[in-house]
Amino acid sequence: MKSGRFDPKRDPHLRHPSHRERIEQAATALKQQLESRSRHLAERAAKTEAERAANAARPKRSTAAYRAALAAIPLSRSGEPARLSISPTYQRLVDISVRCIEDRSREPVLCWPEFDASPAAVAAFLTLADNASAEPIKRDTLDARAAPLGLRALIFPYASSVHRPLRKLYVDKDALGRLHTQHQVRAMRQGEDRALADYHKALARAKTLTGKALDGNTYDEFQHPCLDEMLPYGPCTGGDGRKPLLWHVKSKTDLLKISRSGDADNPENAKFYLFGLRASDNIAASLKSMPKQLDIVFLDLARTGRNRLGRDWESRVKSFLSELDRNVGAVAILALTDDPWTFDKLRFETLRSATSGKSRSKPAPSDIIFAQASDLVVSNNSAAVDYTPVIKQDAIGFSGDVETLLRRIRANARAASDLGDGVATELLYRLSGILRRCASLPGSRRDFSAYVEMEAGSWAAADLLASYRAGSVIAEIKANIGSWAQHHHAELTDLCASVELVWANTAQLTPMAPLLRDVVKRFERASSRTAILFRNDMLSDFASFVLRRDEEIGANIDARIEKNMLLFLDKESFDDLATLRTTERNQIKTLICVAPTRSQILALLARPWLPDSLIILADSDTLASAARDGSRLLAYPELSAIHKRVSAFVEKAGKAVHREGGGVDPIQGALDEDVEFPASSVVNLAGNVRPNQPTIRLRFSGDQVVIARPGTKLILLDHSRAVPIFTECEAKDVDVGERVCVIGDAFLEMARPMLNITVRAAEEIRDYHRMVLDRFSRLQGASDHDRLVSLVTAMGLPTVTVQRASYWIDLHDQLCVPLHDVVPHAPRERPTFMAFMAALGISEAIAARFWIWAVIAQRTSRLRAALSFHDAYRTILIDTYAAQSGNPERAREIRRLKAAAQDFVAVVQEKTEHRGERDRA
């Protein structure tokens, strides 16, 4: 209530203003308000004009100049004379980054389907281009360069692995030294930036590199500086993990003796610096204490980056952006992702300007890079990609009780999230993943458990099967006392009971098992070859194991497998098929893709080569999610090459999916997460251990475990040399703290495309074929049929018939085909193989050696082939130079493998000794 004449708090002696006085007071107040508003508008206009003038006066980064500068910089790989240049994909990323920096815009980029972009590489290329595009000038008749603009960038979420691709590429020392010598002519003048002067001085000395290290020996990797040494980098706060300029060559050559101020390595003053903000860092504190300004921020939101942030990656990115605006201000942001759903989430929500309102009609500016490789550099001749037509597509899904229960679990997970119960949310999503994983097995869970234990032993089996057991997660959910459990206790109890019932059913039969059997049965007598693609080779081998034991079709399946008419593949094996000659590749008319993830379906549709017919088998959730993503991809003209494939899949998947309720908003709808089939963290190099036989278990950083016999030779990294080398050491002599190269699943996935070890296997198999023909010709009998009868009789196995054994000795054609087309004609079971060898009079030791290479050549499960792969790669890594000399055509791949293997070295944290009966307990 306003004060008035009858207000008891009003002083009765105070004269009440007259009507005229009140009018004058109002006019004065209005005048002051208008003057204040005018001043505010004038100040804002002046500020806008100042910013416009500053932007106009600010040096501009030219996309064309950067492109020309990068094209002129020679790049190479260690020991290879070929000159390489930046790849078109990374050139586009550089162009987009320059545009973002100039406009201070926020843009997502979809790098798809096989382009694993490195933000550290983009920063390195920007640094090279900035220095090389500086305008030529004169200083006292000497050629010089104008000052570069500099680059201060940040990567979030950061991990040191983003630098791996850069360490295998080298910048020509002569071109680099010549460029920075010109910069140094300018930088030595008084008044120049001290940090820039130090930067140019360090890089100008790169021209003095000769490859000679401090130990007096010459190494290829010290001939030129690597791409990772072009700008210093480190964390936002603290000194741990910082890398100075030329950090690699400086530590091993006489560049260590350069007299420098070190200003170029100081994040406080450096003009070129790359900051790394890890997912585990305190974002607010790190950004607040970070010195100076930033030119660009890279958001690494590919699958690995999102996994670093966790399930709530989106909210964490929004929190990061909020802190960035508060502590740093307006800055360019480039978000790199490999997922179409994430790409649209960034366009329409996360990176969208707050001034855009609620309408979805104006998403954030964005780009798509459609690429089939992640190469940073390429040779000058790049072949165009042709996409084969897919004549027929089909998508078959299963739902039933599993889908109903999964939908119910997700609904409860969202309810738990809304209540702020993060523990319950995580447990429910884990439970959903276990159910989907079990339902997608190509055989029953009971058969899978028996198979894994038979192939890998109890220790590795326990590690693998933990991801398929629901009991421990259900127990944690029941024991949870969070807000969701208190609000929905009855639902919790009933849900757990339903999960236990459905999970128990998968022990007898999974939904995928009969579906796969019925589809494969349609091709058991087909005249063309059929390929079946699985997520990994473990599932591929398990499916083969199950189908060959089927009472009705097992014999036919076994015969087709032995004749290579039915191929069980993982991704690496399918990559091999794509490299075959067109005539042989065209013999494969049908591809059956079993239980792929949402992203794998779309990536498969984007592969250049596919057979005429494609069948996808998956749960309804996966098909629905992939169909939604496919619908979004159809809107992008950059992907026109695969529009026909994708539209056919969307149509088939839409008919295969049966859902209750209405449609799902493509942006707001809950994302059905891809469920992976995890690989084992245990590498079993001991094989089948006899009772009371000693074994050694080594536990490494990262929780990897290697099981070996005392005499098993392991690969150690010796850091005492100028250039680290690999040596071998028996497992019993390895001590805690030593560095061992672990040849596990991650190593094999890296090495497979880099050095195809199956070529070596093919050489061994050809020798095997010659030996079999020679021994078979010595058997008694007037004809091949008579000798086959003698052979089958000597083997003494009821499952081996003359017709079946005839395939094993039908080898004359295999001696004439090119090496990459060699196919092993041999029994696929070890007992049968050993009996076959014994009947031919071949010793057990020789037979065992050929069996090892047959395992590799046929790409059977890594569970069984662990020792085979380990021995093959150990020979190459230990004696690299002999391997190059013996295989000069593959010397380049061998050098790259040795360099990459250093990224898979782990430190021994624990060493224990066990006995065989305990391993099998």
Short description:
This protein has 921 residues and is an alpha/beta fold. Helices cover 47% and strands 14% of the residues.
Task: Outline the structure in words.
- The chain is of the alpha/beta class and 921 residues long.
- It contains 35 helices and 25 strands.
- Strands 8-9-6-10-11-3-12 form a seven-stranded parallel beta sheet, sandwiched between helices.
- It is globular and about 130 Å long.
- The relative contact order is 0.07.
How would you describe the shape? globular
Low-confidence stretches: 659-671, 859-863, 917-921
Q: Helical element count?
A: 35
Biggest sheet architecture: 7 strands, parallel
Number of strands: 25
How far apart are the first and last residues' alpha carbons, in Å? Answer: 85 Å
Strand order of the largest sheet: 8-9-6-10-11-3-12
Helix content: 40-55%
Quickly list its features:
alpha/beta; 7-stranded parallel sheet; disordered C terminus; 35 helices; 25 strands; 5-stranded parallel sheet; 921 residues
Strand and helix layout:
Layout: H1 19-57, H2 63-71, E1 75-77, E2 85-86, H3 88-103, E3 106-113, H4 119-132, E4 136-139, E5 142-145, E6 151-156, E7 169-171, H5 173-187, H6 194-204, E8 233-235, H7 247-252, E9 272-276, H8 283-289, E10 296-300, H9 303-309, H10 313-327, E11 332-337, H11 340-350, E12 367-371, E13 377-378, E14 392-398, H12 400-418, H13 422-439, H14 445-465, H15 471-479, H16 483-487, H17 489-506, H18 512-521, E15 529-533, H19 537-548, H20 554-562, E16 566-569, H21 571-578, H22 582-585, E17 588-594, H23 598-605, E18 613-619, H24 620-633, H25 643-656, E19 682-684, E20 694-700, E21 705-708, E22 713-718, E23 725-730, E24 739-741, H26 745-754, H27 758-777, H28 784-795, H29 802-809, H30 830-839, H31 844-857, H32 862-878, H33 880-886, H34 891-901, E25 905-915, H35 916-919
